[in-house]
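The protein record filed here:
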Amino acid sequence: MEKKGRLLGFQIRSFVSSNGERFSLLFSSEEAFPLFYPTAFISRSKRLNTTPSTQLVYLDAIKRLLEWEAQRKRQWDAEGKIGLEVRFQRHEFLRPHELDDLARYLNAARCRKQGDTIGAAKGNTYISYAAQYLKWIADELVTDGNRPDVRAMIDTQDRRLKEKLLSKAGSKSAKNQGNWKKHLSENAREQLHALWNDPFIGLFRTADRGARQRTVVMLRILYETGMRRGELLSLKLKNVLDSAGGQVARLVIERNHGDSFDTRVNQPVPKTRGRIVPITAGLERQLTEYIAEYRADVPRVGFDEEDFIFVTHRNKRSQGAPLSISAFDQALTELRKLFCAFATLHPHLLRHDWNYRFSLQCDKAKWTPEKERASREILMGWAEGSESALIYNLRHTQEQAICIGLQVAGDTERPTLPSKEILAATGKLAVAVANTK
C-alpha cells in the first residue's frame, strides 16, 4: 500500500511493511528505485530516533533541495552534469550566494503566486533539515574530511546555511505561553452541546446519519477527555471500558506506533503516554449507540477487539476501513460550513479548552498548583515535570498576579474630600500661612 505525491521530477512514496512499520522513500521520476543517499540518510541517521511523520518532513526538505539542485546544475557546469555529490568530492562547497538562493527556494510557497513564502516555523524546519542532510552527505563523500582545512569548509557551509533561518527559534516554553488561555467561544460551546442533544441538526439525508453520529461522538470525546486527534483515531473496540461495579465508563489510550492491524499509511499515533480517561454516562450512551446501530451497518466493518471504532461510512473502496486523518478533517470542515459558531474549531483547540476547564475545576476544589499539575500530567499523558503542564498552570499564577497588581495599583485611589470641605481646608491653610508671616 502506498501514497504518492510528485513535483518537478521527484516523488515521495510512503509504505507499510509487513510488521506494521511506516516508512517513506524518495524517488526520481526517471528511476524505479529510491534515491541512494536520501534513503541511506533516513535509514542510518533518522529511522531509529524519529517518527515516520518526522522522517517524511526530512524527505520533503531533501526533495526541495534536490529540486533546487536540478534547476541550478547548468550554472555549475556547461554540460549540466556536475551536481552536489561531485562538487563535494572536489571540495567545492556551496558559496554564500548559492546558500542565499537555496534558502529562498526552501522557503518558497507552492501552489501560490510567485514570491509567496511559507510560514517561518516551517521554513526554519526545511532549512535545518536540509543543512543536516548536506553536512551528512559531505561527511559521506569527502574522504579526507578530517583535514582541518576541509573540515573548516564543511562546518562553514553548515553554519552559513543555518544563519538563513527566518527567525531565531525561542524556547518551547515561550512559544506556548498563550496556550493556557485558549478555549472555545461561548457560541461554539453552546453549538456543541446542541449537537450532543440532537446530533442530526441541519442534516437532510438519512444516509448521512451514521457519519454525522460518528463525527459528533468524536467531537464529544475530544471535548470530555482532551485527547489528541491521533489518539482518538487510534481507539479500538477493546479500548472502551463500560461502566460497571461502581466504575464510570473509561477509554484506554495506548501507544500504538507500528500497529500491524492499522492499514492506514499515514497512521494516527499518540504523542504522549498511554493512560485511562473517564467519560460521562451521556457520552457512553452515544458511543454505544454509534457502535451498535450505525457502525454495525457499515459493509466490510470488523467486530474483533483489534478493530478500530471510527470507520469510513461512505460507499467507496475504503468503506468500513479505519477513518483517516484527512477524512476526519474533512468531516470537521463540513461542520464548519454548516455552523458559523465552528469557524475556528479544530481538534487541538478542544484540548486547550479541556485544560482551561480543568484549571477552573481545580480552583473550585481549592487544589494547590502542585496537585493541579500532577493530576493534569496523568490525564494528559505527560511525563512527570512536564513543561506543558507547567504552561497551563500559569493561568492560576497569572490570575493571582493580576489580583495583587490591582491592589498595588489601588494605592493611587486616595479618599477625596467633598468640595466644601476642600474649600474650608484651603481657607484654614491660608489663615495658617498668614499667621506665620
Q: What stands out?
A: The first strand starts at residue 2 and ends at 7. The first helix runs from residue 36 to 46. The beta strands are 2-7, 10-16, 22-28, 240-241, 250-253, 275-278. The radius of gyration is 30 Å.
